[in-house]
Amino acid sequence: MQLFRPGANTIATLAIAAIGAAPVLAVGLSYEVMRSPYVTNQNITRNQPVPFSHEHHVSGLGLDCRYCHTSVEKARFAGMPPTETCMTCHSQIWTNAQMLAPVRESLARSKPMAWTRVHRLPDYVYFDHSVHVAKGVGCTTCHGDVGQMRLMRQAAPLTMQWCLDCHRNPAPYLRPREAVFDPKWRPPKDRAEIGAKLAAGYHIKTDHLTDCTICHR
Amino acid sequence: MTMRRLACLTMLLAALGGCGDHSMSQQNRYGTFSKAPLFRDGTEAQSLPKGTVAQGDLARARQITTPPAVDMALLSRGRERYDIYCSPCHGLSGHGDGMIVQRGFPAPPSYHSARLRAADARHIFDVITNGYGTMYSYAARIEPRDRWAIIAYIRALQQSQQTDMAAAPQLRSKLP
């Protein structure tokens, strides 16, 4: 008596293979999802109350990052400029521009602009801008080519893996001190060689750079 | 029976307590510049109450009254700060022709005018601190010591435009 049809063998083999493959695929899928912009917010452009263009202010006018982000060299937080900083120029330039009405209103009512945050780290991560720029990590190393961004977006994935890539081997990501705030700086060809020298010059020791308490305190 | 039901309900509620986000990625505290409904103006960034004296205020006050000694380090610092905060309007060489002026901001006077060459350092310090004409105050952006550093660099800029090269031929050989 024929209990199974001839195709049953194939189905059984596929079923057994699926039992083996499903966990692997599931892990792979969740890994991909966790790295995807859907979770990391990488390259997602945010709407802002005023469409502030870094392209215009950085590349067009040549303003230094620190003109607005004044605390980047001395504090954890790079600093968002107060409305007064915007109005330093815009009290005289583009004074009637509709686009800038929220800025003028902010100054008139002493009410800070409510920008939409672009780079968000989890609360259990400790990050300090000042030590990174002091040790030769350039602004655009993490923030991407800000001078080409009309609206701000997060250029890097900001995942723990991404942080660790540099904390394990920072040398290839370092710049000379005078290039840290240069948005047009491009790495030289012998970067690895220069990087090792720079790391020594900045006294960067990697022995404890991946300790848990470096970033989770 | 009622006791058992109550016990079941308590356990169920305790189990429910385990739900929700336990990653601690959003902790119960305010981040820098975050929204803060506890305060009337809704922001975490609160200005200091009037009359607050911060630690180190005396030292800061001294920095305002006593200029630091001028050395190469101070000049380099001054150049860096000048290029960041002043050059957009005053121009890299101090002629008052910076990029923002080229885009329509009223031109500031050149540092190389007779009036500003004669102006004393305290005047420039006060202008950086309080603003002048259409220029806003830079007190919040440039610390007192850096204001003195900038002034030292402005003096160097003024010198650079007034040196008689013919009278000092040995200087020309040092120029790049």
Please report the first level of CATH classification, the CATH class of the domain at 70-163 in chain B. Mainly Alpha
SSE string of chain B, helix = H, strand = E?
HHHHHHHH
Radius of gyration of chain A, taken over Cα atoms and rounded to an integer in Å: 24 Å
How big a fraction of the residues of chain A is strand?
A: under 5%
* Largest sheet properties of chain B: none
Number of E-state strands of chain B: 0
Q: Work out the largest interface and the residue count of each chain.
A: A-B, 25 and 27 residues
Describe this structure in words.
The complex is a heterodimer of chains A (217) and B (176). Chain A has 11 helices and no strands. Chain A has helices at residues 8-35, 37-40, 54-60, 65-68, 83-90, 101-109, 129-134, 139-143, 160-168, 191-201, 212-215. The longest helix of chain A is centred in the N-terminal third of the chain and has 28 residues, at 8-35. Chain A starts with 7 loop residues before the first helix and ends with a helix. The model of chain A has no long low-confidence stretch (mean pLDDT 93). Chain B is elongated. Chain B has 176 residues and is an all-alpha fold. In chain B, helix 3 (72-90) packs across helix 7 (144-162) and helix 6 crosses helix 7. The model of chain B has no long low-confidence stretch (mean pLDDT 89). Chain B has helices at 2-16, 57-65, 72-90, 99-102, 114-118, 121-130, 144-162, 169-172. Helix content of chain B is 48%, strand content 0%. Chain B contains 8 helices and no strands. The interface between A and B is medium-sized, with 25 and 27 residues.
